[in-house]
Specification:
Elements (H helix, E strand, L loop, with lengths): L1 E4 L1 E4 L2 E8 L15 H28 L2 H14 L2 H14 L3 H19 L1 H22 L13 E5 L4 H5 L6 E6 L7 H9 L3 E3 L12 E5 L4 E4 L3 H8 L21 E6 L2 H9 L4 E6 L13 H13 L5 E5 L29 H4 L1 H16 L4 E6 L5 H13 L5 E5 L2 H5 L1 H4 L6 E3 L1 H8 L18 H16 L4 E3 L9 H8 L3 E4 L4 H8 L4 H13 L3 H11 L1 H5 L3
Parallel strand pairs: 3-4, 4-5, 5-6, 9-10, 9-16, 10-11, 11-12, 12-13, 13-14, 14-15, 15-16
Antiparallel strand pairs: 1-8, 2-6, 3-7, 7-8
This protein binds phosphoenolpyruvate and magnesium ion (MG).
The site of phosphoenolpyruvate has 10 residues, from strand 10 and helix 16.
Length: 556
């Protein structure tokens, strides 16, 4: 049996036949003009194809939530937009252009016009091209772009997934995801974890997998077995018995409390996380309120959105992170488009240097939402590097009546000097996605660097240990809210390093909580030592996994 190796980013074992994501369509050739008598039929075929595409996207929108649902609804409307459909039909009727060619040409011109307009309009060009490919695929009978539709469960294999693809994913039919691209903190990985779908990214040889090949995927270990034997199949096919619900508050076997919190990106995520039993919210990413806009949302709008999140957690902790724009989250009204290295640029808290009013308004909105709610509100800043920044942020929060102000530790400098930063900040939350990126000088989005970009790197564990030791001097709590917290093997290591709460996509809470409950605090400390003594990320991970027997039993 051939075993492909990649990076396991969402645990679980499943086996099923492969369905590949279709590649991009090629431009239809002009060919001979259609004879007069065939033109009306061709005109009608454009109507039928565009309506089918609209219905397909609307159906996907109704299965999605939040921003994804909005994107899909807008794209669905575009499929039958007269500026596309009527213009293409005229070309067929008047000049005998073949329908697939007519749709292609009209959509291309439309996309070019939108690109030229810039701003939000330019972003719509991608949607026009997506709709174009879907209509053309219908007309030519080729496989359309996006996630395949199958009656039977399958393993989705792709180079990487785009946001619109992932929004349309149906967790019932996609039993696992394997990609050749992507990294542990890429969009695909984050989505797979949030849907609870086992996933392996940066998989060597994934591009050679063909439709119908049977594969057994282990999303915890990062293996993909090609054409597995009966015994392997039996172990993988039905999935293992991993716990699917959260049993009480998070704690080690000997009762050391570790709050199990949720990462959320919008108000609908808050309701979902509360339903899954999260003890609170450890990271509320507020970017959803700002992205895709020409200017910042009003204070009133922010109050309304934040209040909806707080309402889901009365009496519970909710950590709101202030705007983290820049790098992978560009925002024209606060970030610059021409920085040579945006990940090392004016991002996160740094955007408030030139735009203090954006942070000020956000704090006004948070304070107002807090005063009308029963939640225990905490506020933290992303990308804090220095003592001065921490002090200024805490002072700014205090000015707005917010006294539980903390910092994210995402920059090695902040981890190393946590003792100094936490003299003023009331708590810290380690963003392991960025901390790993900066510690290893390895872009978190790059598949080629996936083996480097893992929080299992002993150097990253050392930084977290140092941050915990520094915070302990002032008795300050340190949580982890990066993707590391969602790894059921790494979570006990983090607890052993001194981390006091773990925040993750809500779907990962049951598995992490269950594994933690099988280990004592001393065992977690031993695991932390074992991992830090390893010479590499792989060795750290293998050594720790070998010690936690339930991982194998539960297929995590
Ligand atoms: C992180 O960097 O780990 C983090 C939680 O922040 P984000 O992923 O939003 O950058
Ligand atoms: Mg970050």
């Amino acid at each position: 049996m051939q075993v492909l190796r990649g990076v396991g980013v969402s645990p679980g074992r499943r086996a099923a036949p492969v369905a590949r994501m279709a590649g991009p369509l090629s431009e239809p050739t002009a060919g001979q003009p259609l004879p007069e008598e065939d033109r009306e039929g061709a005109v009608e075929s454009i109507n039928a194809a565009s309506q089918q595409v609209r219905d397909e996207l609307q159906a996907a929108a109704s299965r999605a939530t939040g921003a994804a649902a909005e994107i899909l609804t807008v794209t669905a409307t575009m499929a039958t937009d007269p500026s596309l459909v009527k213009a293409a039909q005229s070309q067929v009727r008047d000049d005998g252009v073949r329908p697939e060619r007519a749709v292609w040409v009209v959509a291309r011109d439309l996309a070019d016009q939108l690109t030229a307009l810039g701003g939000n309009m330019a972003e719509r060009a991608t949607d026009v091209r997506d709709v174009r490919d879907r209509i053309v695929a219908r007309l030519t009978g080729e496989s359309g772009p996006g996630v395949p539709v199958r009656d039977e469960p399958y393993v989705l294999v792709a180079h990487d997934l785009a946001p619109a693809d992932t929004a349309a994913l149906d967790a019932e039919s996609v039993v696992a995801i394997v990609t050749s691209g992507g990294g542990p903190t890429s969009h695909t990985s984050i989505l797979a974890r949030s849907l609870g779908i086992p996933c392996v990214v940066a998989t060597d040889g994934a591009d050679s997998l063909a439709d119908g090949d049977v594969v057994a995927v282990d999303g915890g270990v990062g293996n993909v077995v090609v054409e597995p034997d009966e015994e392997t199949l039996a172990r993988y096919r039905d999935g293992a018995d991993a716990p699917t619900s959260l049993e009480g508050p998070g704690a080690t076997k000997d009762g050391h409390a570790v709050a199990l919190l949720a990462n959320i990106g919008d108000p609908s995520g808050a309701a979902g996380a509360a339903k899954l039993g999260a003890e609170g919210v450890g990271l509320f990413r507020t970017e959803f309120c700002f992205l895709g806009r020409e200017r910042a949302p009003s204070v009133a709008e922010q109050v309304e959105q934040y209040s909806r999140v707080l309402a889901a957690f009365p009496g519970r902790k909710v950590v709101i992170r202030t705007l983290d724009a820049g790098a992978d989250k560009p925002l024209p009204f606060v970030t610059s488009a021409d920085e040579p290295n945006p990940a090392l640029g004016v991002r996160g808290l740094r955007t408030s240097w030139d735009h203090p009013e954006v942070l000020g308004d956000q704090l006004v909105a948070i304070a107002e939402a807090q005063s009308a709610s029963e939640a225990e509100v905490y506020v933290m800043a992303p990308m804090v590097a220095t003592v001065g920044e921490a002090e200024a942020f805490v002072a700014e929060c205090a000015k707005h009546g917010i006294d539980r102000a903390g910092i994210m530790i995402e920059i090695p400098a902040a981890a190393l000097r946590a003792k100094d930063l936490l003299a003023s900040a009331a708590f810290a939350s380690v963003g392991t996605n960025d901390l790993t990126q900066y510690a290893l000088a390895s872009d978190r989005e790059l598949a080629a660097l996936a083996a480097l970009s893992t929080p299992w790197q002993p150097a990253v564990l050392d930084l977290i240990a140092t941050a915990c030791e520094g915070a302990a001097v002032h008795g300050r709590p340190v949580g982890v809210c990066g993707e590391a917290a969602a790894d059921p093997a790494l979570a006990p290591v983090l607890v052993g390093l001194g981390v006091t709460s773990l925040s993750m996509t809500a779907r990962s809470l049951p598995a992490v909580g269950a594994v933690l409950a099988t280990l004592t605090l001393d065992e977690c400390r031993d695991l932390a030592t074992l991992a830090r003594e390893a010479a590499s990320a792989e060795q750290a991970r293998d050594a720790v996994r070998a010690r936690i027997s339930v991982l194998d039993v539960w297929g995590l």
